[in-house]
């Protein structure tokens, strides 16, 4: 009764507090990120190291064991498991549930950097990945058409650049398409005839395919930077490169190998409704608003559709914001229906004014929570 009497005596203050609560709650409702699955910290990390062309036993000896030896000294670790496969080492670290994952991630990187000194130079740098629910894609965009996978990938790369420029987008991973690759295919018999090894030829090609800084040149009051361009602009230039001299005659790359202007071996394949396509898997940063990001992505797609060549279709096969929007609509509808039902029921027992004040407890409780 003391609280009730005080509220009645200071009803102006109560109305002001209610208005402030309503304004703060509405602001929080518009500012809070919308998620169907909130960001959850998962106490697992992976250390992935690639060493192409190496057998699983050698991967374990050369990569997995040296890294595991360093990781044994980590604190707050429950389990360390590893998988050594052909050309790849994957080490999974399980931490205690209450560990600070940001600090743990930094410690893992320090240990991996220490272990990297013992790894073979040919192995790729170890990659430390933190497992998070934010890594799951929020939207899948498909680019299809009859213009060929090369052209589709160019269109998707333009889309990728624009989408990754949207605030809150972590990355837009490109899947599918074909990438140009220049291959030098050696003839073993010709190499033996010229007494050359494939490694010598590869080193010569690598050494010639560079731009060399030449310092600066002063002409009067002007100062110019000098650069010697050496990168290959055309595959034919590789075949015309001199590798060595035998019996006074120059030996060219084309004498030893065949230069092929082709495509890389497909690492990922994307299909949409059974048709080859190029896809973009869009991921957001933790704590960002999915609905806003997806709305901006759809605006980019609409603009790109107007500029795409004839026969090219840009569609969305997965959009998490649609699910969240439906959940928010259901929440709002349930709140309004509950409010109206309370008013109707209480109207017959307490009157209209009293029923309205009692029913207002439903939206105000939600606004206070927000």
Task: Give a quick precis of the structure.
The protein has 370 residues and is α+β, with helices and mostly antiparallel strands.
Q: What is the global morphology? A: elongated
Average of pLDDT:
82
Uncertain segments of ≥5 residues (pLDDT<50)?
none
Major β-sheet profile? 5 strands, antiparallel
If helices are DSSP runs of H or I spanning 4 or more residues, what is the number of helices?
Answer: 13
Instruction: Give Rg in angstroms.
Output: 32 Å
N/C terminus separation: 28 Å
The assigned structural class equals alpha+beta
Write the element-wise H/E pattern from the N-terminal end onward: HHEHEEHEEHEEHHEEHEEHEEEHEHHH
Estimated share of beta-strand residues = 25-35%
Helix content: 40-55%
The counted number of beta strands is 15
Provide an overview of this structure:
- The two termini are 28 Å apart.
- This protein is 46% helix and 28% strand.
- The chain has helices spanning 2-9, 11-31, 56-71, 101-116, 149-164, 188-193, 198-208, 235-239, 253-256, 290-307, 320-350, 352-359, 361-369, and strands at 41-50, 77-85, 88-95, 127-132, 139-144, 169-175, 180-186, 212-219, 222-228, 242-246, 249-252, 257-263, 270-272, 275-284, 313-319.
- Helix 2 packs across helix 13 (361-369) and helix 10 crosses helix 11.
- The protein has 13 helices and 15 strands.
- Strands 5, 6, 13, 14 and 15 form a five-stranded antiparallel sheet that branches. The protein has a four-stranded antiparallel sheet with strand order 2-3-1-4. The protein has a two-stranded antiparallel ribbon with strand order 7-12.
- With 370 residues, it is an alpha+beta fold.
């Amino acid at each position: 009764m003391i609280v009730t009497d005080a509220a009645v005596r200071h009803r102006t203050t109560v109305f002001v507090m209610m208005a402030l609560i309503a304004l703060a709650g509405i602001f929080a409702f518009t500012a809070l990120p919308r998620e169907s699955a909130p960001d959850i910290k998962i106490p697992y990390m992976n250390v992935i190291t690639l060493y192409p062309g190496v057998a699983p036993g050698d991967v374990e000896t050369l990569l997995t064991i040296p890294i595991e030896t360093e990781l044994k000294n980590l604190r707050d670790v429950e389990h360390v498991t590893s998988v050594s496969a052909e050309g790849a080492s994957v080490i999974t670290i399980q931490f205690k549930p209450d560990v600070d994952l940001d600090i743990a991630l930094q410690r893992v990187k320090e240990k991996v950097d220490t272990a990297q000194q013992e790894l073979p130079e040919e192995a790729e740098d170890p990659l430390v990945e933190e497992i998070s629910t934010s890594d799951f894609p929020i939207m899948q965009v498909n680019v299809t058409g009859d213009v060929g996978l090369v052209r589709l990938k160019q269109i998707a790369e333009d889309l990728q650049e624009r989408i990754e420029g949207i605030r809150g987008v972590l990355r837009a991973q490109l899947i599918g398409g074909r990438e140009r690759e220049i291959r030098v295919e050696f003839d073993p018999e010709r190499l033996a005839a010229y007494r050359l090894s494939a490694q010598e030829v590869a080193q010569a090609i690598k050494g010639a395919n560079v731009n060399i800084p030449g310092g600066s040149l002063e002409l009067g009051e002007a100062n110019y930077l000098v650069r010697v361009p050496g990168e290959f602009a055309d595959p034919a230039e590789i075949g015309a490169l001199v590798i060595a001299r035998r019996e006074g005659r120059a030996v060219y790359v084309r004498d030893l190998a065949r230069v092929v202007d082709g495509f890389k071996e497909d690492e990922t394949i994307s299909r949409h409704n059974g048709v080859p396509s190029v896809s973009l898997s869009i991921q957001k940063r933790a704590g960002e608003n999915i609905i806003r990001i997806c709305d901006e992505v759809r605006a980019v797609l609409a603009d790109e559709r107007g500029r795409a060549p004839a026969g090219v279709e840009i569609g969305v096969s997965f959009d998490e914001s649609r699910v969240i929007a439906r959940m928010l609509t259901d929440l709002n509808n349930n709140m309004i229906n509950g409010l109206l039902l309370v008013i109707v029921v209480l109207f017959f027992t307490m009157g209209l004014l009293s029923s309205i004040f009692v029913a207002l407890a439903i939206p105000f409780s939600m606004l206070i929570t927000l």
